[in-house]
Amino acid sequence: MHKILIVGEHDGKTLNPATAKCVTCARSVADAEISIALLGADTAAVAAQAAALASVKSVLRIDREENAHPLAATFAPQLAALAADFSHLLGPSTSFGKDLMPRVAALLKVPQVSDLMAVEGAYRFRRPIYAGNAIVTVEADPARKLVATVRVASFEAAGGGGSASIESKSLGIALPSHTRYVGAKSGSTDRPDLQTASKVVSGGRALGSAENFKLLFSFADKIGAAVGASRAAVDAGYAPNEMQVGQTGKIIAPEMYIAVGISGAIQHLTGIKDARTIVAINKDGEAPIFEVADVGLVGDLFQVMPELQKLVGT
Amino acid sequence: MQKIMVCIKRVVDYNVRVRVKPDGSGVMLDGVKMSVNPFDEIALEEALRIKERVGGVEVLAVSIGVADTQQQLRTALAMGADRALLVQSDAAVEPLTAAQTFLAVAQKEQPDLVFLGKQAIDDDANQTGQMLAAMWDRPQATYASKVQIEGAKAQVTREVDAGLETIEVDLPAVITVDLRLNEPRYVKLPDIMKAKKKPLDVTTLDALGVSAGQLIKIVKTDPPPLRQKGVMVKDVAELFAVLKKKGLL
Q1: Which of A147, A168, A189 is the last residue of a domain?
Q2: Mean pLDDT of the region B146-153
Q3: What is the CATH number of the domain that holds B88?
Q4: CA distances from A70 to A46, A75, B161 (A)
Q5: What residues make up the domain containing B151?
Q6: Are both A164 and A204 inside the same structural domain?
Q7: Is A267 within 8 Å of B14 when comparing Cβ atoms?
Q8: Residue A209 burial by CB count (10 A; 0-12/13-18/19+): exposed, middle or buried?
Q9: How does DSSP classify residue A143?
Q10: Cβ distance A178 to B169 under 8 Å?
Q11: Could you say which residues from 168 to 197 on chain A have a Cβ atom under 8 Å away from some Cβ of chain B?
Q12: What is the extent of the structural domain holding A76?
């Protein structure tokens, strides 16, 4: 049997959907027993959500004041201690998991496999390299603990209906104080979350200004979509960093991705390859985005978008 | 602040479209343009800006790789690093081994800060900085978009999924950098000439007491699955009709 511990991501109130995707990844390992670890100041609410995920056997709560903010320096030693009872340790390939998991792996003196996109065996996986231009099949040593991050765009979220046990654990280990949380700034919005939205409308440099992005926001609100941006648009200051889609931004897998004025650099394409339907709207018919688009329209976005919005409205 | 160490990786240039070898044994690297990993360039630029602001700071560029990696270290010296160290290894080095190697160098050099790119654009692993920080038992500040040094502390703003997060770390610390931290300078010809006279030492993993075992076996390399060829529509009305038919609008 493989005992898999998933590091749950949450904000104290809500379990991040990335956790349910990690559960699906873990379920594709044959003969797996799945647990979820939750670190926080008070994880009661999120523990109930985690316990309801299908196929999860137990939820481990590690509540202490120092866990109020997810700092890798303080979380990692606690997870390394918890890992003693497990063969596998999985975390999501989100900024939370990418920051944390390698620190845990190093404390355990084991390598990490990043961005699992498919499970071929308990120690055999597929993962992308070179911005997704190649896929490697890798094998880790079964004699060691396996630490990995899960490419969340590659897995559906596990359903509900589960009834895992919830256990509060006290690890009693000293934590470093050399790393301190100061604050956070997020452009919170009422729009769907970019990483989990079923529809995403994304803008590139051709938008020309932050003001013009309103064109996309207005259309997105009409169809219930999240809004993303290319690196070029973020670099130009048209959109904040949390909207960036691509190799170094967010990797997403919506039902529909509408790329507006995005040329389609390989670094961007790697972030959208798992979208079910890719729609491209671009003035340049030679733009590489059309090579991956399911539906393409050559045209001026400043004419196309208002016209499309009008049609949707009727 | 006396010394900053910057870790640099030689990678396939980011403009090259990488292709998989037909026999699945890896990607084609023969004759391909190699460069400094773009994130590491940003890391070096930040170190140089701190050096210019604070003064009296030595910037050391360190890399692990084949003998030709000296080219990338010369680029680092031309950008403004004071000296360079190549840990020569013909075999590819995994992130855990890279972190062990940088740890050995850090213990010897005792830098106040170690800068790295947040990930290398070849293996996209995003591990080395965090692993180094763990083994060094020092703070880590990953995905930095702003770095402020205040005495023996640094305030680092990080790019996270929800937006921006600021943390404070005691020095020495490991900082991995994101895209928007700065824009690396262009190297000028006189700087390239000057860089030829700067010290570039070469050592080996053995000499540092690091073993280069392969812990994760790469079984095969495949090209990514191709997407079905799409359709081009002629106008907005047709676009709307197609998406409507697919149930997407």
Answers
A1: A168
A2: 96
A3: 3.40.50.620
A4: 14, 7, 13
A5: 3-245
A6: no
A7: yes
A8: exposed
A9: T
A10: yes
A11: 176, 178-187, 195
A12: 2-168
Alpha-carbon distance A303 to nearest alpha carbon in chain B (angstroms): 9
**Which member of A110, A184, A307 has the closest CB to residue B162?**
A184
In this structure, the number of other CB atoms found within 10 A of the CB of residue B230 comes to 17
Q: How many structural domains comprise chain A? A: 2
Cis peptide before B223 (omega within 30 of 0): no
B72-120 tens-digit pLDDT:
999 999 999 999 999 999 999 999 999 999 999 999 999 999 999 999 9
Q: Which residues contact A196 (CB under 8 A, 6 or more apart)?
A: A17, A157
Is position A301 within any domain? yes
- In angstroms, the CA B40 to CA B57 distance is 19
Whichever domain contains A117, its CATH number is 3.40.50.620
Whole-complex ipTM? 0.96
In a domain, A180, yes or no: no
Same structural domain, A102 and A234: no
Of A106, A133, A223, the CB nearest to B135: A106
A203 and A151 share one domain = no
Residues sharing a CB contact under 8 Å with residue A56, sequence separation 6 or more, in sequence order: A23, A34, A35, A36, A50, A158, A162, A164
The residue from A119, A151, A168 where one domain ends is A168
A300 and A223, same domain (yes or no): yes
Whether A231 has its CB under 8 Å from any CB of chain B: the answer is yes
Q: What is the CA radius of gyration of chain A?
A: 21
Are the C-beta atoms of A28 and A124 separated by less than 8 Å? no
- Cβ B158 vs Cβ B145: under 8 Å: yes
B158 backbone dihedrals φ, ψ, rounded to 5°: -115, 140
In a domain, A175, yes or no: no
- pLDDT < 50 stretches in chain A: none
> Nearest Cα to A224, choosing from A195, A189, A199, A194?
A199
Does the distance separating the beta carbons of A178 and B169 come in below 8 Å?
yes
pLDDT tens for B17-61 read: 899 999 999 999 999 999 999 999 999 999 999 999 998 999 999
- Chain A: residue nearest B240 by CA? A308
What is the DSSP code (8-state) at residue A202?
E
- Give the CATH number for residue A266: 3.40.50.1220
Q: How many domains does chain B have?
A: 1
Q: Is residue A150 part of a domain?
A: yes
- Are residue A105 and residue A227 in the same domain, yes or no? no
Residue of B nearest to A251 (CA): B161
Is the same domain home to A162 and A63? yes
Question: Which pair of structure tokens corresponds to residue A41?
Answer: 């100041």
- The CA distance from A160 to the nearest CA of chain B, in Å, is 25
Residues near A7 by beta carbon (within 8 Å), at least 6 away in sequence? A22, A36, A37, A39, A75, A79, A89, A90, A91, A92, A97, A100, A101, A104
Question: pLDDT digits over B209-237, tens only?
Answer: 999 888 999 999 999 988 888 999 999 99
